[in-house]
Amino acid sequence: MTIQQAQIIAVARDGTHRFSKTPQPGITLLAGLGVQGDAHAGETVRHRSRVRADPTQPNLRQVHLIHAELLGQVAADGFRVQPADLGENITTRGLDLLALPRGTRLTFPSGAAIEVTGLRNPCAQIDAFQPGLMRRLIGTDDAGDPVFLAGVMGIVLEGGEVTPGNAVHLALPPEPHEPLRRV
Length: 183
Prior knowledge:
By secondary structure, this protein is mostly beta strands.
């Protein structure tokens, strides 16, 4: 299914482990690795805390996606956040990323494809970027449990170019759908 209004509004990468990434005119996704030239690309974990815990873990966080609507929501609360500021590789519009089930496949006109693996967990670096922002990116559900709002993570199934303006094609996994959990 293609969500008509769903599109990419920004893409980014950074070759070093910094919190924010650098917006780009396009990025190249590499199957099984992530974003070419990005510090988080690799078959095994690249996030420093996860490497310290177990460097042999599979990298379920090859690509970070955030929906632009979140940026508007935090702006309404007085925060100034632009695409790539929160370390995402792909910023979408018109797609509720947080509502997708685990295993959803996102494809782009080049044939590049990402499988959504889980939620990004907000970390203390968010407050170093803007004090109070981390608390804003953790909500609560009806049961009072934390809900992570800082985007989703995925792995690259098929390589290819992704650029702003690209449409996003969505394929849900077979039912029963698994909700996203922190990865």
